[in-house]
Design goal:
Layout lengths: L3 H9 L1 H5 L6 H18 L4 E4 L7 E6 L7 H9 L7 E5 L9 E4 L2 E4 L4 E5 L8 E7 L6 H15 L1 H7 E8 L10 E2 L3 H14 L1
Parallel strand pairs: 2-3, 7-8
Antiparallel strand pairs: 1-2, 4-5, 6-7, 6-9
C-alpha cells in the first residue's frame, strides 16, 4: 500500500488546500477533483469528506463507502498521514449520534420519527439485523439505501459496515413499543450495548 501516492501530492498542495476558501470556485473544484483522482490512484473506491474550517483547523475524513474489503486501505492512509498544522486526518465517517436528519435521493429521513427492532439470527449472533419502521415506507431501493445512510450517520461507517448484516423496513405501527420497536434515537446506545455483550463472549 503505497500511501505516498496520495500524501506526496497532498503536501505539495498543502498551502492551496489550507487556503481553499480564498480560491475562486473554478480553482476549488479543480483542486478537489484532483485530490479525488489522487486518492483513487492510491485505492479505487475511496472517497473523502472535508469538514468546515474552524479556528483550530479542518478535518479530512477518508471513507471506503462501507466496503469492508477497502477498510485496510483507509487505515493505512490515516496511519501514514503526515503531521501537518491545521489538518486532522480521520479514518471512516464518524458517528453523529441521535437527532440525525438525512436526505437521500427524493427521501428525507428524521431519526426522531423512525423506530427500530432487532432481528436475531442464532447462526450469526455477532451480526445485527434491523427492521426499521417508517412513517411512509415504499418498495424502493433508494429508500432502503437512505435508511442505511441514516444508520451510518448515527453509528458511524465502521460499526455500520461491520455490525449490520441485515436491514429491512416496514410501516410504522400504531403502537411501536407494544410491537417491540424502539425509538431510532436509541440506536447508538443499543449498538454500544450490543458490542459490549458480544465482547463478553
Amino acid at each position: 500500500m503505497n500511501t505516498d501516492i496520495f500524501w506526496n501530492w497532498f503536501q505539495e498542495n498543502n498551502e492551496r488546500l489550507t487556503m481553499l476558501g480564498d480560491l475562486d470556485d473554478a480553482e476549488q473544484n479543480a483542486l478537489l477533483t484532483e485530490m479525488q483522482q489522487r486518492l483513487e490512484e492510491y485505492c479505487p473506491g475511496l472517497t473523502y469528506e472535508m469538514g468546515n474550517p474552524t479556528p483550530t483547523g479542518r478535518t479530512l475524513t477518508f471513507s471506503a463507502e462501507s466496503d469492508i474489503d477497502l477498510f485496510e486501505y483507509v487505515i493505512a492512509l490515516t496511519d501514514n498521514a503526515p503531521d501537518l498544522d491545521w489538518w486532522e486526518f480521520v479514518a471512516f465517517k464518524q458517528p453523529h449520534g441521535k437527532g440525525v436528519n438525512v436526505t437521500f435521493a427524493k427521501y428525507r429521513f428524521e431519526s426522531s420519527k423512525m423506530f427500530f427492532q432487532q432481528l436475531e439470527n442464532e447462526e450469526e449472533p455477532d451480526i445485527l439485523g434491523l427492521r426499521v419502521a417508517l412513517p411512509n415506507p415504499v418498495d424502493d431501493e433508494d429508500q432502503l439505501v437512505g435508511v442505511y445512510v441514516t444508520i451510518e450517520a448515527m453509528i458511524g461507517e465502521f460499526d455500520c459496515a461491520t455490525l449490520i448484516g441485515y436491514l429491512d423496513t416496514c410501516a410504522l405501527p400504531d403502537d411501536p413499543a407494544g410491537e417491540g420497536f424502539h425509538p431510532m434515537d436509541d440506536l447508538p446506545e443499543f449498538v454500544e450495548w450490543f458490542k459490549a455483550e458480544r465482547d463478553k463472549e
